[in-house]
Amino acid sequence: MPVAVMAENPVCFQRLLEQCEEQELESPGGIATPQVYSQLLALYLLHNDMNNARYLWKRIPPSIRSANPEMAGIWEVGQKIWQRDFPGIYASIAAYQWSENIQPVMEAVRDVTRRRAYGLVSQAYTSISADDFAAFVGLSVEEAVKECRATEKCSDVPLKYNQSLDETIVSPT
């Protein structure tokens, strides 16, 4: 059975997910290829479908899991997502050299996680240190503040970068 074609844009990721699920179900003996399992696991993370990701991980045969370090790397990212360890998510994604089939999905996971982090910060904080904010969004302090000011992703109101304090603060004005 051919491996699902790689999605190049977010609209195609859903189609790729459906193809991988179908391939897993139709696999001879009920065991799919490591590539299908890896893509499916990464796509579940992309869609923040942690329950399906966790159950997939449990049903992947241990011999396939142990023989495929990339799959273990994907699951490490999944564990960080489950723990809501935003800095850990970005570090785990950056630490691994992903295959060409998995790299676009993991880049999308990073970008979606960053967007979620912006949303969480805008809803949960009235002020946050620039260091903490940068860790949440996986950027350097300068990049995080610059991006926040340029796109106003952090809040519906403009943001200010206050360098006059001992601790730099990003807060709504």
List the helices and strands and how they pair.
Elements: H1 10-25, H2 34-46, H3 50-59, H4 62-67, H5 69-82, H6 86-95, H7 103-124, E1 128-129, H8 130-137, H9 141-151, E2 159-162, E3 169-172
Antiparallel strand pairs: 1-3, 2-3
Protein name: COP9 signalosome complex subunit 8
GO biological process, one term: protein deneddylation
Main location: cytoplasm
Using only CA atoms, what is the Rg?
Answer: 19 Å
Determine the strand fraction and express it as a percent band: 5-15%
Total helical elements: 9
According to CATH, what is the topology of the largest domain?
A: Serine Threonine Protein Phosphatase 5, Tetratricopeptide repeat
Quantity of strands, as a count: 3
User: What order do the strands of the largest sheet run in, or round the barrel if closed?
Assistant: 1-3-2
Alpha-carbon distance between the two ends: 56 Å
Mean pLDDT: 84
The first-level CATH class of the largest domain is given as Mainly Alpha
CATH architecture of the largest domain: Alpha Horseshoe
Q: Which percent range fits the helix content?
A: 55-70%
Largest sheet: 3 strands, antiparallel
Secondary-structure element pattern, one letter each: HHHHHHHEHHEE
> How many domains comprise the coordinates?
2
List unreliable stretches of 5+ residues.
1-7, 156-161, 163-168
Structural class: mainly alpha
Judging from the principal axes of the Cα atoms, what is the shape? elongated
- Give the assembly state of these chains: single chain
Keywords: Cytoplasm, Nucleus, Signalosome
Domain PCI: 8-173
Pfam families: CSN8_PSD8_EIF3K
Protein name: COP9 signalosome complex subunit 8
